[in-house]
Amino acid sequence: MNDYIKDNLAEVRSAIDSTLNKANISKDQVTLIAVSKTKPVEDLMVAYNEGVRDFGENKVQELTMKYEECPKDIRFHMIGHLQKNKVKYLINKAYIIHGVDSLELAKVIDKESLKQNTVTNILIEVNMAKEESKFGVYEEDVIDLVKNISELKNVKIKGLMTIAPYVENAEYNRVYFKGLKKLSIDINNQNIDNVDMEILSMGMSGDYQVAIEEGATYVRVGTSIFGARNYNVGE
Ligand SMILES: *Cc1c(COP(=O)(O)O)cnc(C)c1O
Question: What is d(CA 44, CA 67) in angstroms, rounded to the nearest whole number?
């Protein structure tokens, strides 16, 4: 049935391990996020039973539904674009929100987190390749945004995230992963209060090995684990 998920997961894990070995990076540096969007809970549970605890979702309703149905030791990562009016449903359910790209959105997350008596971890999404079709702030605007968001008490910036272009050859994206790493070092050097740069969320099915070589701490892998997505089902 969905035994292929077990095999796929083993392959992804072994590719990650060999990349870490080759690049001399310690194993605890990188966490695999299994991107389970559009996939049923039973598919998640196959990965869960193999030890996966980090899952990525891009829709609020789907994330909260799976949150209710799944074991409570799962960390659900919100990796999609987030609308302000849906923020309240995610607080205390999303482990970390990856795609924050405006002060306005951060302010809503702050306000809702205060209401629910918590601090929400976020990543700033950077549009490294300046693709018009993508969300995210441009590299040159990140430091100002980080400084402004750092003033908010109920959100905590934990790092940066990027979605690299779709490319045939993962090497084409190396420059963007390098750039995101450099940006995180620059921000870290500014020692801004309430800001950590410990997380770099970059790399997907097509390019996660290159992303790891360039310093990714989270890789977000969907298709290579769960197979192709069918967007006509359940949307
Ligand atoms: C869907 C998605 C992924 C996973 O993509 P695959 O190519 O299926 O591995 C990763 N990151 C984000 C933000 C996504 O929306």
Answer: 11
State which of 79, 168, 235 you would mutate to test the pocket of ligand 1, scoring each by most atoms of that ligand within 8 A of its C-beta: 79
> pLDDT digit string (tens) for 72-97?
999 999 999 999 999 999 999 999 99
β-partners of residue 97 are: 78, 122
* SS3 state at 122: strand
Please, how many CA atoms are within 13 Å of residue 150, restricted to the half-sphere of its CB? 18
Please give the Cα distance from 127 to 142 (Å, whole number). 10
- Structure tokens given for 138: 């441009």
β 155-161/54-57 pair status: unpaired
pTM check: above 0.90: yes
DSSP state of 156: E
Find out whether 55 and 36 touch, Cβ atoms under 8 Å. Answer: yes
Q: Tokens standing for 206?
A: 């097509």
Residue that has been written with the tokens 């990650």 in this structure:
16
Report the alpha-carbon distance of residue 16 to residue 20 in Å, rounded: 6
Ligand 1 is surrounded, with C-beta below 6 A, by 35, 37, 58, 79-80, 163, 204-206, 220-224
- Residue 93 DSSP SS3: coil
Q: Do the Cβ atoms of 51 and 13 come closer than 8 Å? A: no
